[in-house]
Write a structure and sequence with these properties.
alpha+beta; Nucleotidyltransferase, domain 5; five-stranded mixed β-sheet; 21 helices; globular
Length: 575
């Protein structure tokens, strides 16, 4: 007896996957220009058609006086002459109407980088803010949807002929925009069998421009998302042995988990993971920052092999002094109080050591100091003036103490004299026109400022027994967190109309008891402290309560942040 046919895969509703395509407003645009350079050429004609749900809801068309002659080759292509545009409005008059027409829609164009690039350049040139609409390129969409046998070329004219559109492109803006509308509708009719049902999936399809159908295993595994709630939180994909394969967060767990079972998911690594999944667990959280903290903790605990981000957030490096009468700087993974860090690699930590030793005369060698009265061995570094006097047998602890004190003051932010010494060296090298050496010193100093900024910010937060933060949730309510010694102790929300302080009191009463531990961060994990610090200091967060004043040193790295940004403008130096 033949086996029964497999049950059809459950069909996802539009609302479960993202913005339904039926609700999306597409603004299909075409521009004619004086040439191909957005920086040196300008627009001569604009044509745009607004469509929603397959229906045309508006059109915009106008010639534009470019203020210059139109090249003969452009006239031959478009038929737009200088005489034709004379008396037409100039671009500053046209631009506001075009941007208003785009408001709330997805910008669609054939070869969209060209049209969007000219509009962005026009906004920049005339001091207008670019609204950054989603952009969809029908040429790339065609290449993602159609085979090369069916469509050897994805030029607009070739696609219009393939689909038999009623309007054919003529290199005039409105006609080309109308032809693009028809091509768009034909292409959208082809994407349903790829599992694409939302705007988000459509944009992903075009971005990757490589058609993939959901695998049979993906389709069957859609049932794994049925019990996942539509709430913010953390999700865990588990395998056959209940092992955690992948951990992620989302503001809508159900929508995010369902997306893994559609054509919108194109990462081979994740598709392999989904094929192995047997269960999806969900942890509902109050808001995004609680979810992010739980994600960090779960990744550290389970180390899932399909997570590419750090699977061991505890693996950081610090610079600290050794427990010797004449201390050295040492790179360690378990720091003591007063350590500098955290660093993501030993190399970065060692570079910080070299930079500090240029200004603070701690001994950099590993020669052991003999007992008093015994003779000291020779020290080559001392001969090169790179080692402090004790290595040559000078046992004056009091004479060495200022160097140790300078190190501690640098890390604590009590004295930035060492930074001034290093900055003066950069200036001196530049004045001598030794620019490469100056650049190397500058970059090392900027890296040191970044490390000092991290440790001073994070230790200031981790040193507080309790901090309560409240951030507007955008709906008239508040997102709330209780942080104790740099760790999340509780999280909650006060919905619109609910007085927040009673909720704060209830959260504090039920928050986890977290006692300070060893090290500069009092036992907290650096990545969690950094995440909470960013949340508490940005996004309009207000401090509802703090056990002690939250303060950072006046002579710490914060006062050097502007210098470091100028030195290394492409990097964020102080978190």
């Amino acid at each position: 007896m033949p086996a029964p046919p497999p049950a059809p895969a459950p069909q996802l509703s539009f609302d479960e996957l993202g913005t339904p395509l039926r609700d999306v407003t597409f603004v299909v645009l075409d521009l004619e220009t004086t040439g191909g350079s957005a920086e040196h050429d300008t627009i001569t004609e604009v044509g745009a058609v607004k469509v929603r749900g397959g229906e045309r809801v508006g059109e915009l068309a106008t010639l534009v006086d470019p203020g210059t002659g139109i090249p003969p080759q452009v006239v031959a292509l478009t038929g737009i002459t200088t005489a034709l545009v004379t008396g037409a409005p100039r671009l500053p008059q046209v631009l506001p109407s075009v941007l208003e027409f785009l408001t709330g829609g997805v910008l669609v164009a054939h070869n969209a980088p060209f049209d969007a690039g000219f509009l962005r350049a026009a906004c920049r040139r005339h001091g207008v803010s670019w609204p950054r609409p989603p952009v969809l390129c029908t040429a790339r969409l065609a290449r993602a949807v159609l085979t090369r046998d069916e469509a050897p070329s994805v030029r607009l004219g070739a696609l219009a002929e393939l689909f038999g559109t009623t309007t054919r492109p003529t290199h005039r803006a409105l006609a080309d925009a109308r032809a693009t509308v028809e091509v768009l509708h034909h292409l959208l009719g082809r994407i349903g069998n790829l599992g694409v049902q939302s705007l988000e999936e459509l944009l992903t399809l075009v971005r990757d421009a490589t058609p993939h159908r959901p695998t049979e295993r993906q389709r069957r595994n859609r049932t794994l998302a049925e019990s996942v709630p539509a709430a913010p939180g953390v999700y865990l994909f588990r395998g056959a042995r209940d092992e955690v394969l992948y951990v992620g967060t989302s503001g809508d767990l159900r929508r995010r988990v369902r997306s893994y079972f559609t054509a919108g998911e194109r990462r081979k690594r994740i598709r392999d993971m989904v094929a192995q999944a047997e269960r999806v667990d969900a942890i509902v959280c109050a808001h995004a920052v609680e979810a992010a903290v739980h994600e960090l903790r779960l990744i550290a605990a389970h180390r899932p092999r399909y997570n590419r981000r750090s699977r061991n957030p505890h693996a950081t490096w610090w610079v600290t002094t050794t427990a010797e009468p004449f201390p050295r700087l040492s790179v360690v993974s378990t720091p003591r109080d007063g350590a500098l860090g955290p660093f993501r690699s030993q190399r970065d930590a060692r570079e910080a050591v070299d930079t500090v030793l240029d200004a603070v005369p701690l001994r950099p060698c590993t020669l052991r100091i003999p007992a008093r009265g015994a003779s000291a061995g020779p020290c080559a570094l001392y001969e090169l003036h790179r080692c402090a006097a004790p290595c040559a047998g000078h046992q004056d602890v009091e004479g060495y103490a200022p160097a140790v004190a300078a190190w501690r003051a640098l890390v604590d932010g009590a004295d930035d004299g060492a930074l001034h010494v290093l900055a003066d060296e950069v200036a001196t090298l530049s004045a001598r026109e030794r620019f490469e050496a100056a650049a190397r010193r500058r970059d090392r100093l900027a890296g040191l400022v970044g490390a000092l900024g991290r440790v001073q910010q994070l230790t200031a937060l981790a040193g507080l027994a309790e901090v309560v933060g409240a951030r507007p949730d955008g709906k008239g309510g508040w997102e709330l967190v209780v942080v104790r010694h740099g760790r999340l102790a509780a999280a909650g929300v006060a919905r619109r109309g609910v007085p927040p302080m009673p909720v704060v009191d209830a959260l504090r009463a039920g928050a986890a008891t977290l006692l300070p531990g060893p090290g500069p961060l009092h036992g907290a994990v650096a990545e969690e402290v950094r995440l909470l610090h960013r949340w508490l200091t940005g996004g309009g967060t207000r401090l509802a309560l703090a056990s002690l004043p939250w303060e950072e040193p006046a002579r710490g790295a914060g006062s050097w942040a502007a210098w470091a940004r100028r030195a290394r403008p492409v990097e964020v130096v102080v978190d």
